[in-house]
Every structure is written in structure tokens, then in C-alpha cells.
Amino acid sequence: RYQSDLSLPDQALLVRFMDTLDERVNAINACGLPDTLVHGDFHSGNVRANADQLTLMDWGDCFIGHPLLDMTGLLERLPAGLAQIAVDSWCEAWQAYLPQARVYEAVQLLKPLDCLRMAVTYQHFLDHIEPAEQIYHAADPMLQIQAALAVLGAPAA
After folding, report:
1. Neighbours of 147 (CB within 10 A)
2. pLDDT band at 155, cuts 50/70/90?
3. Is residue 4 left, alpha or beta, with left meaning phi > 0 and alpha meaning psi from -120 to 50?
4. Mutual angle of helices 103-127 and 80-97, in 10-degree steps
5. Per-residue CA distances from 117 to 51, 94, 112, 120, 124 (Å)
6. How far apart, in Å, are the Cα atoms of 62 and each of 55, 67, 69, 74, 136?
7. CA distances (Å), origin 49, targets 28, 123, 151
8. pLDDT tens digits for 9-23?
9. Which one, of 71, 63, 1, 11, lies nearest residue 38 by Cα?
10. Could you give the CA distance from residue 122 to residue 65 in angstroms, rounded to a whole number?
11. What is the pTM of this model?
12. How far apart are CA 49 and CA 47, in angstroms?
């Protein structure tokens, strides 16, 4: 759907990414993290907390998958410094739970894949909401595609 909005080099980069997707998924699986319940829309707007309790809301996009797939949604709303603290905290917790896992490697391998997953999720959302609400998320799929391209090494446009 967004192919015409991408430069030819960006299109080629995404094709190369897709051509090596099986190898990337195998490498992700080899990092040693198990599939878990993934929220699918994990960000601060879907969290309520007080001194005693933390509640995650809006489980409409949940699925069973790689536990680090919730990271992109959280990080995209954080300033860079806090984002790195969140990544480190998340990875350190998983590393403590599974010392043999290669958590940071999994983060790097998953990032472009998760950005593209988020682009599809946003587009699905846009395709099913009323037109008056689409203006709030219309740019989100392309922003996620651009984030994936940035991770994959595309030059800044």
C-alpha cells in the first residue's frame, strides 16, 4: 500500500529484508527467549497504576509471540534517554530470568520486524475506524515503515 511513497533504494532494502526473513526469525529463536503473551499495544496510555497496583488495559491486540515485541510500542513514546533505560531494564530482567539467553541480540534482530508489525497493526486499525478518527493515526503506518528502514540502515531522506 505504501510502496509508491518509498524511494527505490528503500523498496529494495525492504525486499532484501523480506528475502532474509526466515534466517532472521531463526536467529531470533536461537537467542533463547520463549514465546509469551504479548500485549500488542503496550504504551503508557494503556497502563493505570497506584502505589499498590499496576493494571494493563486494552488487550484487543494481544497474541502469543516473542516477549520483546511489546518493546517498540513502549519506546516510541519515550524520550531517548528514558527509552534506553527501559530497554536496559527489560533486557536485564529477562537476562536474570534466562541467563543463557542472548537478550540484547534478540532486541536488535527484532526491531525492524516489530516496526513493520506495528505498521500493519496501525493500518488494520485505520481500515476499521470511522473516517473522522483516521486523522489521528493516518501517518502511523509510514512512520513505522520509516523506523524499520532506519534500523535496517537506510540513509536519512
Report:
1. 20
2. low
3. alpha
4. 120
5. 34, 22, 9, 5, 11
6. 15, 11, 11, 14, 22
7. 32, 29, 32
8. 999 999 999 999 999
9. 63
10. 18
11. 0.86
12. 7
